[in-house]
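Support request, please re-run this one:
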Amino acid sequence: MNRVKRKYIYWKDILERRHVGLQATKGHQVRIYNWSRVYSPDLWLVNFIEKRGLLIGKPKLKIGLYSIFAPDWLTVFDDCDLRIFVARENLHKPGMKRWEHQFLNDNRFQLSIGFDNLEHDQYLRIPFWMTWNTFQPTDTYKEIKERVLHMNNPLNHSYDNRKFACFLCSHSDPGRQHLYDRLSSIDRVDCDGRGMHNNDTLRMIHKDNKLSYLRDYRFNLTPENSNDPYYCTEKLMEAFQAGTVPIYFGCNNNPEPDVINSKAIVFIMQAEIPENQLKLISELNSSKDSYMEFATQPCLLPDAENVIWGYYEQLEDKLKEIIKNV
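Re-run finished. Output below.
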């Protein structure tokens, strides 16, 4: 009986998520399937395809975006002309490896988008950070350059009007708790997520606007959920956008080396803040001059806008190619 109940709950959740994705993209030529929860940034690729005019002349073409949160055989129930798999997660993690590059050479899918640096005609590496909050799907080269200039602008940073640190996470575990405890030995760490929740300003004051919230803090404790050389999510770019110093672990502590200046990050270890880094954070927090000297380093490299624009061009060119061939 328990097995039947678990199956019922499993399929109920899948059908609910599928309904939410389809409702979020109702009226669009690009629809979301097999997604998890849908937030406004989840429509980034939908808007990239539609608002950049890639479907002009194809008014009846139906495109489906698929992720890992439901069985892939559910494609039999859609009527899409073109399907794109979007990884959205580190597929090298235990429990997710069965999805790893599964749809390369699969004629149901015309393109797979993920994090890995992989050469394949049906694959593109598009970093997750590019598609969440910081860069917009309609951005021009000029707008991308302006965003980079904003992030690198010393005026984007402040010491006097900011609290010590925040840590946003969806749940607690022993490793995260240890990071929180270590950092709390310096000063109060605000946690507005579900994990270690002790503060409500994200919801009450900032109306769940994460970038606005981050601007209240000198530091943002922001480790990736898992470590892989190319798995770089939105965490660093959001910190840079908000002008807060990221305390970070991920990407083997060498994130996006052609875009990000690693000297602008305080690196830690998985589930541990080494003593020398804890001392550095404490010293920066106690001295305005030291903090501002560290914080105002350019966080993005001189050629960053060209690298980012290159991702835009690759994505647009590949989408035009597969749309043309339908």
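The chain has a mean pLDDT of 95. The CA atoms of residues 30 and 94 lie 31 Å apart.
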